[in-house]
Write a structure and sequence with these properties.
This protein is an alpha+beta fold. Strands 2, 3, 5, 7, 8, 9, 10, 12 and 13 form a 9-stranded mixed β-sheet that branches. Strands 1-11-4 form a 3-stranded mixed β-sheet, with no helix packed on it. It has a two-stranded parallel ribbon with strand order 6-14.
């Protein structure tokens, strides 16, 4: 195993009076260090892989050097699947052989038949003019996931990608409600933002921390070209993340019956998280949230209103009950699905993410 990241750093969470927040959970490093590490270890860790079947007609048999943001998108999806089927309290250990967990893991294996594989995600990018081997930004990955999830009937996610830093409450809710009934489709919400020009504006640190405290948080994805990471929490003024820049051999965990399959399963779980100062976070990022029920969505909107909108001098984004008049020309009605208006689906733009409104 080759570590391009800083996984040799042993002090993942130093003893401190500062609490650690991981995806809506609070921990004390003084009293709950083992529980904290177990929580981090249980997140599904997707990294660079090598020696997999080539992607389409390309010569790529590894994604080292270009697939890190796609891997971060996979980690967000994996966390959403765990929430949906196993719950936030679920924990992994080396002997875990739960069929649901193994089914989730199998959806991210590196071959063309896996629902959320690197192969399929990168080829979806080709359909939108993104060559295989080219780096993706957070907004592009969110759009790829939105296009991919309708093919996943097992989970039936409603994926929404906020546009222009605006969340439209009723449209998102409408997209999660099935036709003719009040059944809720689990919501996977991405909010792409650009919080500064070349550097993160410190005025947004507080809002980012508040997002990690929300029980619906799936963290955030972001990073500079060729160096993206999946951020899952914070401690003081440092942000906690999982680094995909570790190149491991591809393979199938299958039913986890052989020694090789057991060892491969371990490669999907990171023993130690990494930390870095918030000031080093790239300003181009996407916040991620999961709402398994309508009640959870209503609670998320209330939290956003109270903590991120009313509670901040400079909010990260806008939250509106209905589509503003100036945006109505962008709305599209899908009468056949009975889902009212869905958020506009932009085509992929350049990886500078120039379509973002820059918040300063």
């Amino acid at each position: 195993m080759t570590y391009e990241g800083a996984l040799s750093e042993p002090e993942d969470f130093p003893k401190s009076d500062e609490p650690v927040w991981i995806l809506g959970r609070r921990y004390s490093t003084q009293k709950e260090l083992a529980e904290l590490r177990s929580d981090v270890l249980s997140r599904i860790w997707l990294t660079y892989r090598r020696n997999f079947a080539q992607i389409g007609n390309s010569n790529f048999t590894s994604d080292k050097g270009w697939g890190c943001m796609l891997r971060c998108g996979q980690m967000v999806l994996a966390e959403a699947l765990v929430r949906r089927h196993l719950g936030r309290d679920w924990l992994w250990n080396a002997s875990t052989s739960d069929k649901t967990y193994l089914r989730i893991l199998g959806m991210f294996e590196d071959h063309k038949c896996a629902t959320f594989s690197l192969h399929i995600m990168s080829q979806l990018g080709v359909d939108e003019g993104k060559p295989i081997g080219e780096w993706y930004g957070p907004n592009t990955v969110a759009q790829v996931i939105k296009k991919l999830t309708p093919f996943d009937e097992w989970n039936n996610f409603s994926v929404n990608v906020a546009l222009d830093n605006i969340l439209i409450i009723d449209e998102i809710k409408c997209s999660c409600q099935t036709e003719g009934e009040r059944t809720w489709r689990p919501l996977l919400l991405f909010i792409p933002l650009r919080l500064g020009l070349s550097e993160m504006n410190p005025i947004y640190y507080s809002g980012i921390k508040k997002c990690f405290k929300m029980p619906q948080s799936l963290g955030l994805i972001g990073g500079k070209p060729n160096h993206a990471s999946y951020f899952i929490g914070f401690m003081g003024d440092e942000i906690v993340y999982l680094d995909p820049h570790t190149t491991q051999d591809a393979g199938n965990v299958d039913k986890k019956e052989t020694e090789a399959e057991v060892e491969l399963d371990k490669s999907y779980h990171c023993t130690f998280a990494l930390r870095m100062p918030l000031e080093q976070l790239d300003p181009s990022l996407a916040l991620c949230f999961y709402c398994g029920t309508e009640k959870e969505y209503d609670d998320l909107c209330n939290r956003m209103r109270q903590e991120l909108i009313d509670g901040e001098k400079t909010p990260l984004f806008e939250l509106v009950p209905t589509r503003p008049d100036y945006m109505k020309d962008d709305a599209s009605v899908e009468g056949a699905t009975g889902r009212c208006m869905e958020l506009e689906d932009h085509h992929f733009e350049s990886e500078d993410d120039e379509e973002f409104e820059v918040l300063q």
